[in-house]
């Protein structure tokens, strides 16, 4: 199974090693965005760039209205269409994913390569981990084709407990 690095929530940041430099994640995401925009002949405007930064700063899914409030605090246009246009651009460019069940957006850790993001969502801490498993995508396309169906989009979100919350719950029971 090929997996990508999981996104970590603030909850996990409390427990992770001091070797993680959160600014490196943001810098890497912005560098990838700049490169992809140049390759695609697109512009990474100030609002698009800041929206991407804010999504990566949270390291957890961020809703459009949460993003709108943060942008408004910083003096950006506070109209919802401004945020939705920025989010639509970032989604189309493959720089973020939408976590449908949370109606929120998450930075894509591997925006520089084509992939399908699947998500493990912790019911307790709400951490979302992205993984890429090509076999799932291939199987879905094949099953859909058997039914004469053309698959255009897929969303797979699995909920449960992450390892830290599972350990915490087991410790509370003991």
From TrEMBL:
<feature type="binding site">
    <location>
        <position position="165"/>
    </location>
    <ligand>
        <name>Zn(2+)</name>
    </ligand>
</feature>
<keyword id="KW-0479">Metal-binding</keyword>
<feature type="binding site">
    <location>
        <position position="125"/>
    </location>
    <ligand>
        <name>Zn(2+)</name>
    </ligand>
</feature>
<dbReference type="GO" id="GO:0000976">
    <property type="term" value="F:transcription cis-regulatory region binding"/>
</dbReference>
<keyword id="KW-0678">Repressor</keyword>
<dbReference type="GO" id="GO:1900376">
    <property type="term" value="P:regulation of secondary metabolite biosynthetic process"/>
</dbReference>
<keyword id="KW-0862">Zinc</keyword>
<feature type="region of interest" description="Disordered">
    <location>
        <begin position="1"/>
        <end position="24"/>
    </location>
</feature>
<protein>
    <submittedName>
        <fullName>Fur family transcriptional regulator</fullName>
    </submittedName>
</protein>
<keyword id="KW-0805">Transcription regulation</keyword>
<dbReference type="GO" id="GO:0005829">
    <property type="term" value="C:cytosol"/>
</dbReference>
<dbReference type="GO" id="GO:0008270">
    <property type="term" value="F:zinc ion binding"/>
</dbReference>
<dbReference type="Pfam" id="PF01475">
    <property type="entry name" value="FUR"/>
</dbReference>
<feature type="binding site">
    <location>
        <position position="162"/>
    </location>
    <ligand>
        <name>Zn(2+)</name>
    </ligand>
</feature>
<dbReference type="InterPro" id="IPR043135">
    <property type="entry name" value="Fur_C"/>
</dbReference>
<dbReference type="InterPro" id="IPR036390">
    <property type="entry name" value="WH_DNA-bd_sf"/>
</dbReference>
<dbReference type="GO" id="GO:0003700">
    <property type="term" value="F:DNA-binding transcription factor activity"/>
</dbReference>
<dbReference type="GO" id="GO:0045892">
    <property type="term" value="P:negative regulation of DNA-templated transcription"/>
</dbReference>
<keyword id="KW-0804">Transcription</keyword>
<dbReference type="InterPro" id="IPR036388">
    <property type="entry name" value="WH-like_DNA-bd_sf"/>
</dbReference>
<keyword id="KW-0238">DNA-binding</keyword>
<dbReference type="InterPro" id="IPR002481">
    <property type="entry name" value="FUR"/>
</dbReference>
<comment type="similarity">
    <text>Belongs to the Fur family.</text>
</comment>
<feature type="binding site">
    <location>
        <position position="122"/>
    </location>
    <ligand>
        <name>Zn(2+)</name>
    </ligand>
</feature>
């Amino acid at each position: 199974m090929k997996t990508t690095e999981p996104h970590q929530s603030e909850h996990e940041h409390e427990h992770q090693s001091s070797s993680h430099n959160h600014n490196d994640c943001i810098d890497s995401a912005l560098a990838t965005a700049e490169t992809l925009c140049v390759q695609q002949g697109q512009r990474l405007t100030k609002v698009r760039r800041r929206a991407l930064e804010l999504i990566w700063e949270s390291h957890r899914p961020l809703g459009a209205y949460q993003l709108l409030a943060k942008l408004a605090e910083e003096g950006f246009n506070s109209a919802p269409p401004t945020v939705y246009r920025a989010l639509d651009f970032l989604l189309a460019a493959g720089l973020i994913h939408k976590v449908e069940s949370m109606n929120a957006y998450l930075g894509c850790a591997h925006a520089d390569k084509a992939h399908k993001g699947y998500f493990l969502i912790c019911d307790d801490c709400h951490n979302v981990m992205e993984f890429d498993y090509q076999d799932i995508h291939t199987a879905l396309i094949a099953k859909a084709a058997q039914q004469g169906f053309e698959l255009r989009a897929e969303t797979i979100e699995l909920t449960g407990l992450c390892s830290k919350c599972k350990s915490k719950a087991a410790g509370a029971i003991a």
